[in-house]
Design brief:
Distance between the termini: 35 Å
Oligomer: single chain
Radius of gyration: 20 Å
Mean pLDDT: 88
Largest sheet: 6 strands, mixed
Shape: globular
CATH architecture: 3-Layer(aba) Sandwich
Number of helices: 13
Strand content: 5-15%
Helix content: 40-55%
Structural class: alpha/beta
Length: about 300
Amino acid sequence: MIVLGIDAADYRLAKRWDLENLLLDNHASLETFSHSLDTPSTIEVWPSIATGLSPEEHGLSVGSGDRLEWENPVLKLGSRITSHLPTEVRYQLGRPFRRASALESARIDESVSHLFETGYVRNWPGITPAREWGRASEWFGQVSRGELTDDEYVRREMGNDGQIIGWLEAQALSDVSLAGAHIHGLDHLGHVYAKRPEKLRNGYEIVDTLVGQLRELADELVIVSDHGMQQTLTDDPEPGVHSWHAMVSTTIDGELPDSVFDVRSWIEARLEGETRAENGAATIDAPTEHLEDLGYL
């Protein structure tokens, strides 16, 4: 089973644009939640999808990761020393530390179990290092400063998502029972193009095409989102702000989970008896000296 988390995939837009790969054989709206903010937040909802628990239980909420990182006395001192510098200079100096911020490095409490303990997972906020999310966040910052064209920005975001989906395709071709990953491109495009639905539709159609390739390889595919995105096409009051229109879509027949808190138990019930395949350590057959000459070792 392949689980693809698509951040901000709005159920209304998937249906309006008739995206057949996002809308698999069985699909529905999915109830989500807000905790720290007025609308659902990525850093809170994705860990809840993986654990089935609320932020109070899994230990991650908006700002929790930032507090852990920036309470470091060395970082506090550095921030004070550079406070007089121009904003752009401070931005560049802060890059290495932002890569280790809540977006990328925050984790659920160690004592909390999650869906992918018996599977494989990549770029899932709160569960794994979310490096691709961090990289895309830098591009989002560049857009805010007018440093990227629309075409270049979309290519970067969709290329990033394509790499992650490609990883899932490789898992689908391997002997694994469960693999999952999260992609963030539609969230960023939803914020940027909230008042330009034709550009947002382009991103949705690219993701739909990528998912179509994954669909052909996966025995079973589950797609889930954490929230949607308000925009002008559906006459929302706050374009560019998260909406409540999350979705779930799957190739599996039958009842679907009602809320983000039900996704874990719903998947586990359909994976009963499956175990993670474990193999011995990998070995290399080529001569060590040759590999050293090539610079591999």
